[in-house]
Predict the structure.
Amino acid sequence: MNHNEDRKKCIVLGVTGGIAVYKAADLCSKLAQRNYEVVTVMTQNACKLISERIFFTLSRNPVITDLFSVQDWKPEHIALAERADLLLVAPCTANFIGKYAHGIADDALTTTAMAHRKPVLLAPAMNTWMWQSPAVQENCEILRKRGVFFAGPVSGALACGTSGEGRMCETAEILREVERILGKEQPRQ
């Protein structure tokens, strides 16, 4: 049997600094339960909203928060990009979308994204006006033309106290997209 057939599919879960970060913890847990290897890469803003220890516990893998704290000789973002079967960014902020669309690589997540050559799935989460802004929509169009997949956003109550499109979609919807992209059917739970 081919060694690659024995290997768990590896998902890099990029966590950015949106208030929907609490949904990322549930997503990390559900991915691990479905036998994916989950490696979380958090932005500094995400670390201000939720503890990296949560993702370490749920994934059973070290969490990457900094480009310069890696002990190995090989740059972690390159090694991780080579190993990952999917890059999933959830929640995905307007900031990450803009950086990714325009090739800005200034932290562990954006550098990993730039080096990643397999499928990418973004789950946007932001205020309605931010989501609808021409800049964000143009950046999303750039990424769609490059083959990036999107899950959501959906309409609903937002953290800013309003309601509208911009809410991160639910974990179940993101999981369906992950399985569709990776071609891995999972039993219903």
